[in-house]
């Protein structure tokens, strides 16, 4: 099969288009013919080597975390899916590889594709949808009437998280550029801070939850817009000791995480707020919950561009530039 491969860790290096063997299928996996694959900043960060401590992949490596496609074969222990099913997933860590013609996916990580979405739209959902779900529902326990600040509202995670938070009954604030103000309002944002002319720290006060996806300076300011007892959930780091325990990291790696996050954890304690790092996990059951929301019209995909498979490197560069409105997808079928 054809696939885009990382040969060595390097920033902004081109992926190599290669002919590689179709992956071996394990007993609890489904082989999916890839029709479309979402492109995420995580792919660029893995290629650059930024996640070597957390995700020590062996190279060469096929990139790609989001998939929508058709089941072509199932492992002998698989019961929920059959050949011909249209499915979507965020594939598991250490089994990534959706920038290819076929990818194996654990049955537990897979869900039937929402009927009303195209393959390209479906491929845009899993990673950002699961990130938002695990932050808003699992980690924050967001409730009706609470206030949440979601950074970068026009991005992939932000555009999904705004819609989910509104569905949960929260008041939503977000940041975006001037040209995207109407977009984030249409998704449900109640308070929109134009970062080109405003500082969110002077506008926002007493928030229950912050979803942080930006740099360290923004992280520090975000702590100060929370009320006492509020929660800051960061998807851009730094990783904390609890995350190290979750992934079963070795002692030296856990020590590095403790040191990296010591400053923000100390500042959060002083302010009486909680800090946690979230690295989302694959989950077919949560995707089924998301499917129900999509089918009910509570959430819609926000797409920027669809690139042909041959232009995967261009798609990755476009995402890395940080200007996408919603999600970028590559199309194979």
TrEMBL record:
It comes from the Bacteria. Transmembrane segments: none annotated. Coiled coil: none annotated. Residues 11-330 form the Enoyl reductase (ER) domain. It holds the Pfam family ADH_N. This is NADP-dependent oxidoreductase.
